[in-house]
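Lecture 7 notes: from sequence to structure.
We start with the chain below.
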Amino acid sequence: MRALGRSRRAEEAWNRAAVSHSRAERAWSAAIRATTARTSIQCVASVGRPLFALPVPHTWEPTPGVTLLGDAAHLMSPFFSGMGANLAMRDGADLAQALTEHATADDAVTAYEEILIPRSVEAAEGAAEGVDGAFAPDSAEQTLAHMTAH
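Predicted structure tokens for the same chain:
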């Protein structure tokens, strides 16, 4: 597992001068500039928490009678994909279905993991791209381009 954000992204600078410079350099709306001007830098800095993600792709050696689901199988940033809870529920449903359709637990786990891993990789890649974009120097522009493309 790795921490995202501070450790491998754009340099962090929680100070008023950096925020003022950022507001001046970006073509943000007046409402956003007013909101950031009223935001306490100390408040923002004090609630900063690391984001964690498993490497993409995250795979494991098959172990008889054991499998993973939910965050154990595909931990990714919740802020940039919104898929964690949905994937966990889907994992549980797919594992339950596999257990009812196969004669042994090992066969069921094998079938389940054949579905789980490609789906998890796709979602984790999307989340990683979101993290990369969110911490990029041009994050606002990337977000706008993404939203207007869909």
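Points to note: The two ends are 31 Å apart (CA to CA). Residues 2-149 form one domain.
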